[in-house]
Write a structure and sequence with these properties.
3 domains; DNA polymerase, domain 1; elongated; about 10% strand; single chain; 3-stranded antiparallel β-sheet; mainly alpha; about 350 residues
């Protein structure tokens, strides 16, 4: 039986008592809110689905995000990126809501709102983070909360890229790297093209794992959790052999994380585009609108994989170099030029 009592201005207390259940008490600003809440609680008790919400009402979504960041995210290899994602979520109005007030509808609305400014893959990562948080809250924090994300439909992701690096583009990029004041960017770019290593794998290289004699680099832990050895081409060996060693043992100590490398890389791309535009004007030719258009550092992994495939026709051998665990994933990074394939056909 529910009772509604006025305890002062804007203090309406609702009390729900039912045999077999702990007494539920909550204060609201209006009688309507108190009555609605009491009706929901009574209905759940009658149907036998009531779960005490005290702990959920005391913790906001924002507090849960901070707890997750401090206890779970800090242990992940992708700590920096996930922390940034959580910080963005903390600025959203949902962060002010109590966990007890959240519903599937709230996260459907969040998905639709994000779709106006970010791509589908970003939304997937946001929802995956929230889903894991809710699972941790239920299993490890012992909070009686469901995983609302299970019922949220996800947008279709189509992030497969087939961007290859054209020979002329490579010339301008390498020239811009050599003219850049950013240390190591030339060496890092050469390694990316020659080895198909990921940006994070290159930036975290340790000299103790580089064997120039055996022409290999050991990556103790990669994105998929496994270790792998990467063979080094003659060009890659030359790039590393001339690079000075640092006291801390890191090959590229100039960059503490992936984000710190993005700024100088953006400058290199701008310098390359401007140099191309200047040469076009000087030679009185129309610049190509596709020159370096939408080219990313990660596209160098695509390029390197495609080049390696020409030298390593055995697909298992190729996968051992690039670190792909499935042929399906490897296909996303292997994009041979149709013209070159046609020549092979005779």
């Amino acid at each position: 039986m529910a009772s509604i009592t006025e305890r002062g201005p804007y203090q309406i207390q609702a009390v729900v008592r039912r045999k077999g259940y702990p007494t539920q008490i909550k204060t609201f600003e209006t009688r309507r809110e108190a009555s609605d809440w009491a009706s929901v609680i009574e209905s759940e008790m009658v149907r036998g689905v009531f779960i005490p919400r005290t702990a959920l009402e005391k913790m906001t979504f924002g507090q849960a995000l901070i707890k997750y960041r401090n206890e779970i995210t800090i242990k992940k290899r992708g700590e920096v990126n996930e922390t940034n994602r959580i910080n963005i979520l903390l600025k959203h109005p949902l962060a002010l809501r109590s966990l007890a007030s959240l519903s599937t509808r709230d996260f459907c609305a969040y998905r639709d709102e994000r779709a106006l400014t970010v791509c589908a893959s970003t939304i997937h990562k946001d929802l995956a983070l929230i889903s894991h948080l809710l699972n941790i809250a239920r299993k490890e924090w012992e909070l009686p909360i469901q995983n609302f994300i299970k019922d949220v439909s996800k947008p279709k992701v189509n992030n497969e890229r087939n961007r290859r690096l054209m020979p002329e583009e490579e010339v301008y990029i390498m020239k811009a790297c050599e003219e850049s004041k950013a240390e190591a960017i030339t060496t890092i770019t050469k390694l990316a093209i020659e080895t198909a290593m990921r940006r994070g794998e290159i930036l975290t290289l340790l000299w103790m794992n580089v064997d120039l004699t055996r022409r290999t680099v050991l990556l103790p832990k990669t994105k998929n959790g496994a270790s792998r050895k990467v063979p080094l081409s003659t060009r890659a060996i030359a790039a590393l052999a001339t690079w000075p060693k640092s006291i801390d043992g890191r090959v590229f100590h100039q960059y503490s994380n992936v984000d710190s490398f993005q700024h100088p890389w953006s400058h290199v791309m701008e310098r390359a585009k401007k140099a191309y535009q200047a040469d076009c004007i000087e030679n009185n030719i129309d610049p190509s609108p596709t020159f370096l258009a939408d080219f990313r550092f990660h596209d160098l992994r695509h390029e390197a994989t495609s080049r390696l495939a020409e030298k390593l026709p055995n697909i298992l051998e190729l996968a051992s170099v690039t670190g792909h665990k499935s042929i399906q994933m490897l296909r996303r990074y292997y994009h041979p030029h149709a013209e070159e394939t046609a020549l092979k056909l005779g």
